[in-house]
UniProtKB/TrEMBL annotation:
GO terms for molecular function: L,L-diaminopimelate aminotransferase activity. It comes from Dehalobacterium formicoaceticum. Homodimer. Involved in the synthesis of meso-diaminopimelate (m-DAP or DL-DAP), required for both lysine and peptidoglycan biosynthesis. Catalyzes the direct conversion of tetrahydrodipicolinate to LL-diaminopimelate. Pyridoxal 5'-phosphate binds at Y72, A108, K109, Y132, N187, Y218, S246, F247, S248, R257, N292. InterPro entries: Aminotransferase_I/II_large, DapL/ALD1, PyrdxlP-dep_Trfase, PyrdxlP-dep_Trfase_major, PyrdxlP-dep_Trfase_small. This is LL-diaminopimelate aminotransferase. NCBIfam families: DAPAT_plant. The gene is dapL. Its EC number is 2.6.1.83.
Length: 409
């Protein structure tokens, strides 16, 4: 008789976005004529940049010719892409990252979920609350989180509340944490940290020999000067941080799939004897065993993101989405909503009116305004009473959704 991994039994209910899809489908079945606008799941609506499409077509043609056909590639990514990533995203910002510290993958979701495999199950982890649910659920599956309590929080996870009182910025933990998940610009709150604020985390991690798992999936949306794009802009971060990046939102790769993770060789974990081991070769070992690389045409497309035309086209898309963010932010502010984010991130985090529960607000918004967003409670206990809207819709739908929220809610 095959035994199950009972940690899966600890996972709370449906994955957030499956539950949203279930409610939307039920509503659509009962109201087939309703014109629903989706500003819920963080998927993009702009197509791939033309430079990416052309590079991918060329790569596919190469795959069809015996002289240029490629089979298995290097698990950690082709040199032509690694070079561009290092040069464009790090060297140009004065950050020292070498090519063998970059690991190309099929998504930041898989990387943020898989990376915990390198850590002992006895480690204490901290997450912000609210949080991107993948960090928590992947640790639950691994058996690192203890039992679930009545408030849907796990016994062994340290939750770092992001509330109105602290401006949606987590405070340093009081105890000793081994693994710290940070995501800035943040999903779901849309908030960022300054260099000084991020430095406090790096200093904490250096003092406690902890590791920061830094998710920078939204760095390309930063508009203001002085906001760090990478944790490696902070002195000492090379010793204590791993960074996750993605082409998904930056360049419309949500359906194409390409991302990368930076694992500096200086980051160390310790065995039970207290001996230090570099995380970089461990991640290489993990990836070469369990992953066979991203397809050549996709990596060729990702490399084209860094070409002059690619950069111009990506910038146009980001400007488009950030204009949507402004429309939502200003529209809701003028209507008297309390709103966060939306300046350096494609997410707007709003406080629900009259202390309404966030799932209650979800249902009301869907029924009365036919707009779908994401209930804050789905991101953690401190998300209750909040709601997330995304700037990834089309301009027309964004404008229509804001108008409906203002007039119908
Ligand atoms: N990290 C965060 C914070 C996200 O919000 C998302 C997607 O919504 C991801 C990672 C996943 O990105 P990818 O499409 O590269 O898997």
């Amino acid at each position: 008789m095959a035994q199950m991994n009972e940690n899966y039994l600890k996972l709370p209910g449906n994955y957030l976005f499956s539950e949203i899809a279930r409610r939307v489908n039920e509503f659509k079945n009962n109201n087939p004529e309703a014109n629903i606008i989706r500003l819920g799941i963080g998927d993009v609506t702009r197509p791939l940049p033309q430079a990416v499409v052309e590079a991918m077509k060329k790569a596919v043609d190469e795959m069809g010719q015996p002289e240029t056909f490629r089979g298995y590639g290097p698990e950690q990514g082709y040199d032509f892409l690694l070079e561009k990533i290092v040069e464009h995203d790090f060297t140009s910002r004065g950050i020292n990252i070498s090519q063998d510290e970059v690991f190309v993958s099929d998504g930041a979701k898989s990387d943020t979920a898989n990376f915990q495999e390198l850590f002992g199950t006895g480690n204490i982890l901290a997450v912000t609350d609210p949080v991107y649910p993948v960090y928590v659920d992947s640790n639950v599956m691994a058996g690192r989180t203890g039992f679930i309590k009545e408030n849907n929080q796990f016994d062994k996870i340290v939750y770092l509340p992001c509330t109105e009182e602290n401006g949606m910025k987590p405070s340093l933990p009081t105890g000793k944490i081994d693994m710290i998940y940070l995501c800035f610009p943040n999903n779901p709150t849309g908030m960022t940290l300054t260099k000084e604020e991020l430095k406090k985390w790096v200093d904490y991690a250096r003092e406690h020999k902890s590791i920061i798992l830094f998710d920078a999936a939204y760095e390309a949306f930063i508009q203001e000067e002085g906001v760090p794009h990478s944790i490696f802009e902070i002195e000492g971060a090379r010793e204590v941080a791993v960074e996750f990046r993605s082409f998904s939102k930056t360049a419309g790769f949500t359906g194409t799939r390409c991302a990368y993770t930076i694992v500096p060789k200086d980051v160390k974990v310790f065995d039970t004897k207290g001996e230090a081991h570099s995380l970089n070769p461990l991640w290489l070992r993990r990836q070469t065993t369990k992953f066979n690389g991203v397809s050549y045409p996709v990596q060729a497309g990702a490399a084209a993101v860094f070409s002059t035309e690619g950069q111009q086209q990506v910038k146009e898309n980001i400007t488009y989405y950030m204009e949507n963010a402004k429309i939502i932010l200003n529209g809701l502010k003028n209507a008297g909503y309390k709103v966060f984010g939306g300046t350096n991130a494609p997410y707007i985090w709003l406080k629900t009116p009259d202390n309404m529960g966030s799932w209650e607000f979800f249902d009301k918004l869907m029924h009365e305004a036919n707009v779908v967003g994401t209930p804050g409670a789905g991101f953690g206990a401190n998300g209750e009473g909040y709601f997330r809207l995304t700037a990834f819709g089309t301009r027309k739908n964004t404008e229509k959704a804001v108008e409906r929220i203002i007039t119908k809610m």
